[in-house]
Amino acid sequence: MIRATLRGNFALFTAANSVSVVGTWVQRVAVGWLTWDLTHSGTWLGAVSMAEFLPALVIAPLTGVLSDRFDRRRMAVAGQCLATAQASALALLSITGHITAAMVFALQLFAGFIQPLIQSARLVLVPTLVPKENMGNAVAITSMTFNIARIIGPAFSGLLITTIGAGYSFLVNAVSYIGVIAALMALKLPPHVPRTDRHPWAGIWDDLAEGWRYIFAHPTLHWLIPLITLVSSLLWPLTDLMAGVAAENFGKGAGGLAVLTSAQGVGALLGGLYLASRKHHNGLHRLMVRAMVVNGLLVALFASMPVFWAAVPVLVVNGMFSVMVGSGSLTVTQINSEEVMRGRTVSLWYLVTRVGPALGGMALGSLASLLGFRTPIIAAGVLAAAVATVFVFKYGGSPKVDQA
Fold this sequence. Notes:
80% helix; Growth Hormone, Chain: A
């Protein structure tokens, strides 16, 4: 099944995207470390996380409508070009020694306006590159490339930070965008046919409202979207707060941060391999909800660990269940969406999985400044597990909620 999926357009896209997401993780770790190095503040770590993802609250619903109307490839290319400029600015300011925490915040805020444009187009573009029966495998393979990058990127970033400085991590990311831009331009796709004969910008708000009505009337999406919002808000900020956790809980620097982030990536790769090996989608929603419960308990366990090397394997298992939640929820969203609604449904999934960690990161980071990182993260993990358990009993046993 995996071999059948990796052909033609999808193979080209996956190869280029793999390099780009390595660059993304190189930069993501460097942003967290640079912010911590400049401020030593959990509040600042949360604020920088929020700056990147909070604009999605406004932008993502609109880009979802646009991706149902406009050429998705051109949208993705435009976003990648803007992201190259953002990474280049971070690199220049950091290498020349002029960077400040406020500048990092501002540039991450700029990235927050760019990413919905890229991701809405990319997530909707992927299903057009493979046959419908391979869609779940394509999502899982895309997730695997992302999580392989979670292993390679942080390790490479840690090496760069400790040897020549965080600025060169941003430069690596800027260069990595070139390949994916070239690949997007080389994809052999049918000509874009506008979905409507109206003016391209007419009726956007009507289409947006239509998408929300569709989602919250849907038998699966109406409960999936609120649940993934809560879980992503409580559990996923851990990655953005990891620099502070490494320093305060375990007394580790950039090298320790790279180990922890890579450990998550190893587990996420294992989870992605499992999802890609599944031959059908039956029961995926049940697997996803149960994984949320385990994921919450593992986050709480990790935060309570007193010894660094004992915490690392916990984070590996956490990464495995985390990707089952993330990729599983995206696949369930994709396979339960009509083609004419796909841009809007996927953009809402993207919205909640980006804004949720931003708001959660800000809240947990602020609490960490008062209480330390351990207590807020343990509480978040236990709360997420408790809520997900309720959904296991309410929706996790009935196959009728899964149309796939």
